[in-house]
Here is the input.
Amino acid sequence: MISLGVGEVLAQLVRDDVVESSHVGHFVALNSDGSIMIKKGDPSQLIYPRSSYKSILAAAMVRSGVELEPRLLALTCASHSGLEMHQKGVLEILALAGLDESSLQNVKGKPLDESAAFATVVPTRLAMNCSGKHAGMLLGARTNGWSVNNYLDPEHPVQVAFKNELESLSGEKITHTTIDGCGAPLFLITLLGLARAIRSLTISDDRVHQSVVDACRAFPEMVAGPHRTTTRFMQNYPGVFMKSGAESVMVASVPDGRSFAYKVNDGGMRPQRALSIAGLKLLGVNTIDELEKVYGGDTIVGSIRATF
Here is the structure.
C-alpha cells in the first residue's frame, strides 16, 4: 500500500502566541528554470492531484480538436460553485456536442455555493462541481467520433489523451489509475511531477497550452466562483494561474514559470488561504490578502499562518 509520508508542518493555528494546532504535509516551489526553490516534506511523494490538474485534461481535449470560447474553456478546468452561470455554461458545452444533461455521467451533487445549495432541493449532475470537466470530455469524444457512452473508461481515447498530456508535461510515467470522487479516472503522480506539469503548461509556447491558461486567467469566476480562493487570487493578481483540488491539494504558477504545489496530509481545507498566500509570495506575488483570524470571543487573538 502506498501511503503519505510524514511530511513537515506547513501551517499552524497560533492562539495568543501559542501553537494550538498544526497542519502537516508536503510543499514544493519551483524557480522559473524548473529547479527547486524550496521544499517542505518530500516532493517525490505520490499523491492524487484530484481536481488540481483539470487544466491538463482541458489541454488534451483542445489538442484533440475541441474548440471553445475562453469562458467555456475555463469552465472545463473548473471545480465550479454551481451558480446559474456555471450550469448554463455546461449546457452550452453539451449543446455544442449535440448532447444534453442526460449524457453527463459524473455523480449528482448540490452546488458548492452555500446559497445556491440551500435553494437546490434535489442534487443533479449539472450542479455538481465537476460537470464542466465532464462536458468537456463529452465534447472531445463527440468531436472525434468516439463513443460517449463509456467516456469514463480509463481506456477510452479521451482518458488516454489526458494521460498522455499529463505524462508529457510532468515528465513522469503514470503507473496507477483509480477513480475520482466525480467518477472520472484519476492518475497518481508525484507532487514534484504535478508542480512540473503546471510549470510546463504555464511557460509552453504551444498554442493549446496557452489557450487553456489564458482562459482561466481571463475568466477566473468560471474556474471556481465568487469568494473562492482560486478565483479571488486570479482576479486580484493578474498573471496568476491557480487551481485547487479535493483533499487539500493546490497548484499555482506565474508567467515566468515559477510554480508551487502542495498537499496537506489530513485533507483539511483550513490552511488553504495561509498556504496560498505564502506560496504566492515565494512566486513574487505581493499578496495583501489577510491571514485567517483566530478569535477569542470577539477579540482577534491569533491567526493561521504558514511556516515558510
About this structure: The mean pLDDT is 97. DSSP finds eleven helices and twelve strands in the chain. Residues 6 and 231 are 31 Å apart (CA to CA).
